[in-house]
Design goal:
Helix content is about 0%, strand content about 45%. It is mostly beta strands and about 120 residues long.
């Protein structure tokens, strides 16, 4: 079955950096677009970034210029480098995929078939 396992979250001060990782199994990773989304306490799901199987990266306006998505198809892993973090970036971050090369700017959980369990990012002084 499909498994997505995120890691790399934590507590960081404003202006700091974190790198999230998501390891995928059970999908043909090098034919699958991957995405990151987040959910802050009491708020809805927010799409953050996505990357096609062979590259082509997209970002929400709220993170453009601060976050970078990348992937290593040999390691079945997608990354999210987050720089200049702000308190409003505090959320649980999830990776997601449909298992093929389609990009969806998810706003609901049903927009993707496969989700990881999430990793918490807290930005606070």
């Amino acid at each position: 079955q499909v498994q997505l396992v995120e890691s790399g979250g934590g507590l960081v001060q404003p202006g700091g950096s974190l790198r999230l990782s998501c390891v995928a199994s059970g999908v043909t990773f090098d034919h699958s677009a991957m995405a990151w989304a987040r959910q802050a306490p009491g708020k809805g799901l927010e799409w953050v970034s996505g990357i096609y199987s062979r590259g082509g990266e997209y970002y929400a306006d709220s993170v453009k210029g601060r976050f970078t998505i990348s992937r290593d198809n040999d390691k079945n892993t997608v990354y999210l480098q987050m720089n200049n973090l702000k308190p409003e970036d505090t959320a649980k971050y999830y990776c997601a995929t449909q298992g093929w090369d389609t990009m969806i700017k998810a706003t609901t959980w049903s927009d993707y078939d496969y989700w990881g369990q999430g990793t918490q990012v807290t930005v606070s002084a």
